[in-house]
From TrEMBL:
GO terms for molecular function: 5'-3' DNA helicase activity; ATP binding; ATP hydrolysis activity; DNA binding. This is Replicative DNA helicase. The gene is dnaB. Belongs to the helicase family. DnaB subfamily. Residues 144-376 form the SF4 helicase domain. Its EC number is 5.6.2.3.
Length: 376
């Protein structure tokens, strides 16, 4: 897991390491004779050379007692070469007046992040390695006592349908105004914080941090939000608020709130990567709400939302965590007799439906029919 063939500078060493790794995965013995035989059978002896070269390498190899340290040296030198290549690319592209500076900065950040995380972005997957990881996860699921394989939502019925919010998924949480999108989004954050060691990052474009904390306090303390807004609190409610405050403060460095009112996909990725370096990989990312983000340079709003949607999906994949994006719905559904939302009601772009792995709608029938039997 420390080294890849590309970690080695010399082509022969890349070939040798790749073959040794494959033999190990195939549960075959690895020594000078078996390795040379495997290389010869695949026609790989030309870049490696003769058997004497392998023997000389083996003879000059120190004790295996410090093998992990040696591997880390090789990996470190490999990353240094990646940094040199990146620096060379930066010099070349930054000197071109046609270069889009914002895109260049984003590309540099992504490549630096990949180097720091010791994994490559993109490229052809190593099938045996990828399938081995899949089988490991499958075994873990079979041995697990629960059907929830992702981040629990905190709602048993929802977990049974979704198996939890899956890593790499873009989740849309959509609804008309005042339906409870933000409340449900914060409940998902609470559930993620309760079961994961990683941080939860909230990008609140819709409301400032004090309003968001008021909602968190109301949710955790089971106190009506209106009582917190008005300050009309009973002694019992003050006690519950104190308990909620203790819970919130225990999430220091884990509940990360950014209430910037202007946010582009590039800014979002940059801030998430920065928080990863400081606080670790996120367990969940919440964006409230998607239509308030901006993507300059697009011809119209539909293309702008499509670009934002693709960027959020890409971020979920890069961070290997669920990204929950709150979304508004079209006003046209208000004209229908049946106002329960569907995918066609997603506002501004059909790309939202294409990019999302999971779409959830928040609907309260009592908003339209106070006498309904389906309240809540």
């Amino acid at each position: 897991s420390i080294l890849k063939p590309e970690s080695f500078y010399a082509r022969p060493h890349q070939v040798i390491f790749a073959e040794m790794r494959q033999m190990y995965r195939d549960h075959k013995p690895v020594d000078l004779l078996t390795l040379f035989d495997a290389l010869e059978s695949k026609g790989l002896t030309e870049p490696v050379g003769c058997f004497a070269y392998l023997a000389e390498m083996s003879k000059n190899t120190p004790s295996a007692a410090n093998i992990v340290a040696y591997a880390e040296y090789v990996a470190s030198y490999g990353r240094q070469r990646q940094l040199l290549a990146l620096g060379h690319d930066i010099v070349g592209q930054a000197g071109d007046v046609r270069t889009d500076v914002a895109m260049l900065i984003d590309d540099i950040e992504q490549r630096l992040f990949a180097i720091a995380e010791q994994h490559e972005q993109g490229g052809v997957a190593d099938l045996p390695e990828a399938y081995g990881q899949f089988l490991d996860k499958l075994v873990q699921r079979c041995q697990s006592q629960t059907s929830v394989t992702g981040t629990p939502t905190g709602f048993q019925d929802l977990d049974e349908v979704t198996s939890g919010l899956q890593p790499g998924d873009l989740v849309l949480l959509a609804g008309r105004p005042s339906m409870g999108k933000t409340a449900l989004g914060l409940a998902l954050c609470e559930a993620a914080l309760n079961v994961n060691a990683g941080p939860v990052q909230v990008f609140s474009l819709d409301m400032p941090v004090d309003q968001l904390l008021a909602r968190f306090t109301a949710m955790l303390g089971r106190v009506p939000l209106q009582h917190i807004r008005s300050g009309d609190l009973s002694e019992n409610e003050w006690g519950r608020i104190s308990s909620a405050a203790s819970c919130l403060l225990s999430w220091k460095d884990r509940l990360l709130i950014d209430d910037s009112s202007y946010l582009t996909p590039t800014m979002l990725r940059s801030r998430v990567r920065k928080s990863v370096r400081q606080f670790g990989h996120p367990a969940l990312i919440l964006v409230d709400y998607l239509q308030l983000m901006r993507s300059p340079g697009q011809e119209n709003r539909t293309l702008e939302i499509a670009e934002i949607s693709r960027a959020l999906k890409s971020l979920a994949k890069e961070m290997r965590c669920p990204v929950v994006a709150l979304s508004q719905l079209n006003r046209d559904l208000e004209k229908r007799a049946n106002k329960r939302p569907n995918n066609g009601d997603l506002r501004d772009s059909g790309a939202l439906e294409q990019d999302a792995d999971l779409i959830m709608f928040v609907y309260r029938d009592e908003v339209y029919d106070p006498q309904t039997m389906d309240k809540g």
